[in-house]
UniProtKB/TrEMBL annotation:
Pfam families: HhH-GPD, NUDIX_4. It catalyses: Hydrolyzes free adenine bases from 7,8-dihydro-8-oxoguanine:adenine mismatched double-stranded DNA, leaving an apurinic site. Its cofactor is [4Fe-4S] cluster. One of its GO terms (biological process) is mismatch repair. Belongs to the Nth/MutY family. Adenine glycosylase active on G-A mispairs. MutY also corrects error-prone DNA synthesis past GO lesions which are due to the oxidatively damaged form of guanine: 7,8-dihydro-8-oxoguanine (8-oxo-dGTP). Binds 1 [4Fe-4S] cluster. GO terms for molecular function: 4 iron, 4 sulfur cluster binding; 8-oxo-7,8-dihydroguanine DNA N-glycosylase activity; adenine/guanine mispair binding; metal ion binding; oxidized purine DNA binding; purine-specific mismatch base pair DNA N-glycosylase activity. Residues 35-186 form the HhH-GPD domain. Its EC number is 3.2.2.31. Keywords: 4Fe-4S, DNA damage, DNA repair, Glycosidase, Hydrolase, Iron, Iron-sulfur, Metal-binding. NCBIfam families: mutY. This is Adenine DNA glycosylase.
Length: 349
């Protein structure tokens, strides 16, 4: 138990004060865990506070609309998390009479809750002896025990899962789980870990074999996809034409502007592009380039161009999800961050 106790001792002296650590309320823990997936604590904290203030219970959350949830989520990315949360909250109302489950076996059956999240919630809320395994824990275990199996391979996930569970501190699983996650976040960081002050340095395999920068091993990521999206700004007094993204793609169920995606950068001198615009907005439409932006997502690089249109006639057969809204109403709709930045930069100058 030396490994576990060293990490717990370190945690008790170095842990950050975070609001979700002061509760055993499974709903609050769930809220924090989902928000902090793919998100730094500093970025996620304001969202956590806003969501908890707006929806203090799972009952409140379940009663919200998808548009309200996505608007509050705006800027966090990975919007499927927000949609899944609403589905989960409603599942809990239906299957558990509004009482947030605390057992792993119940949690794992809920939409959007995977093995890590189910282990975290069950451990922190009820003390269930389920080991958490997130990126921080993978890194600590890989370096300390010298495991070079890729952490994102099927074999690696199985190996690390079994090791993590064998190490779970049975006297206080919640404390140990919090400790090893925090240890990975603050001490055994991905880059420039603080090895000189590490309480595990004497027995750490990676430290003793100069493998800190090598471990953990990860299989190469998917090829990054490049896309070109062209947005069209159609205004009518205080109204603007918006589009709801309904397909299985980035920004699903968010609102943006009518658009055409091209294989290469579009140009007003490109006859093929102009013909597509005319199919959507009439043969007499005129096009004015406004702004170009490069937007980075996890596996996509998106080049966005904004164009203003005049003398347009909207083909609603092609733009079936388009509708007119006031600027005030559009401000209340969930929208990709890139649109919010464009509006703030271009229209509010």
């Amino acid at each position: 138990m030396a490994f576990q106790q060293e990490i717990i001792n370190w945690y008790l002296s170095n842990k950050r004060s975070l609001p979700w650590r002061d509760t055993q309320d499974a709903y609050i823990i769930w809220l924090s865990e989902i928000i902090l997936q793919q998100t730094r604590v500093e970025q996620g904290m304001p969202y956590f506070n806003r969501f908890l203030e707006a929806y203090p219970t799972v009952l409140d959350f379940a009663a919200a609309t998808e548009t309200e949830i996505l608007k509050l989520w705006q800027g966090l990315g990975y919007y499927s998390r927000g949609r899944n949360m609403l589905f989960t909250a409603r599942q809990i109302m239906e299957l558990h009479d509004g009482v947030f489950p605390v057992r792993y076996s119940d949690l794992i059956r809920l939409k959007g809750i995977g093995e890590y999240t189910a282990a975290a919630i069950s451990s922190f809320s009820s003390g269930e002896a389920k080991a958490v395994l997130d990126g921080n824990v993978f890194r600590v275990l890989s370096r300390y025990f010298g495991i070079d199996t890729p952490i994102n391979s099927t074999g690696g996930k199985k190996q690390f899962s079994e090791l993590a569970q064998s190490l779970i501190h049975l006297e206080d699983p919640a404390l140990y789980n919090q400790a090893i996650m925090e240890f990975g976040a603050l001490q055994c960081k991905p880059k420039s870990p603080d090895c000189p002050s590490c309480p595990l340095q004497v027995s750490c395999y990676a430290k003793n074999n100069n493998l800190i920068s090598v471990l953990p091993v990860k299989l190469r990521k998917l090829t990054v996809k490049t896309r070109h999206i062209n947005y069209f700004i159609c205004r009518d007094g205080d109204n603007i034409l918006v589009n709801k993204r309904i397909y299985q793609d980035i920004w699903q169920h968010l609102f943006d502007f009518p658009n055409i995606e091209t294989t290469e950068a579009a140009s007003v001198n490109d006859e093929q592009f102009i013909n597509k615009v005319k199919q959507n907005f009439g043969k007499n439409v005129t096009i004015l380039p406004l702004m170009e932006v490069k937007h980075l997502l996890t596996h996509q690089i998106i080049y966005v161009q904004f164009f203003a249109l005049n003398n347009y006639i909207i083909n609603f057969n092609i733009n079936a999800e388009a509708k007119w809204v006031s600027w005030a109403d559009f401000d209340q709709l969930p929208q990709p961050t890139i649109l919010t930045k464009f509006i703030n930069n271009y229209f509010n100058e």
